[in-house]
Amino acid sequence: MVDEERLKLMTRMASFEENEGKKAIPVCDFFRSDYVGIHVLLSAVYCTAAFAIIVGVDLFCGMETLLSEFYKTDFVSFGHEILQKYIVLLVVYVLLSFVVYSYRYTKARKSTRTYQKALKRLSMMYEKKK
């Protein structure tokens, strides 16, 4: 005879594994600091690459102006200005990434905690049946 309560619990657990669990379960394989740190570091690398591409395209598009005023341009202040913009962008992006990935980890941990409780409950149901 099939235990309906156990079947419902197993169905909910299977649904979790197929949908939300695909992302949440691998996240919980990490410690919070490792998960957040890896993703913040990757975000910093992507931000740097994007900034370099944007600056390169901007310089390429303004090449005529840059070459016509080459001897009048103060490249040291120009470099400082670009560096300041890069640092501000990087700090904002890293802080935003930290908040987002901390939230994602907390959310995944909470949902897998519910899943773990369901597993324990299912195990207890099997033990009672023996």
Polypeptide structure, described:
With 130 residues, the protein is mainly alpha-helical. The chain has one domain. 87% of the residues lie in helices and 0% in strands. It is built from 5 helices and no strands. The protein has helices at residues 4-18, 21-27, 32-61, 63-68, 75-129. Helix 2 (21-27) crosses helix 5 (75-129) and helix 3 (32-61) runs antiparallel to helix 5. The longest helix has 55 residues, at 75-129. The chain is rod-shaped and about 90 Å long. 5% of the residues are buried.
Offer a quick outline of the entry.
By secondary structure, the chain is an all-alpha fold.
How much is the radius of gyration in Å? 26 Å
Instruction: Characterize the biggest β-sheet.
Output: none
Number of domains: 1
- Tell me the fraction of residues in β-strands, as a range: under 5%
Q: Structural class, from helix and strand content?
A: mainly alpha
Mean pLDDT: 86
Low-confidence stretches: none
* Oligomeric state of the chains present here: single chain
Helix percentage range: over 70%
Query: What order do the helices and strands follow?
Result: HHHHH
State the total count of DSSP E strands: 0
Shape: rod-shaped
Euclidean distance between termini CA atoms: 14 Å
Number of distinct helices: 5
What are the main properties of this structure?
130 residues; mainly alpha; 0% strand
Chain-wise SSE layout:
Blueprint: H1 4-18, H2 21-27, H3 32-61, H4 63-68, H5 75-129
Helix pairs in contact: 1-5, 2-5, 3-5
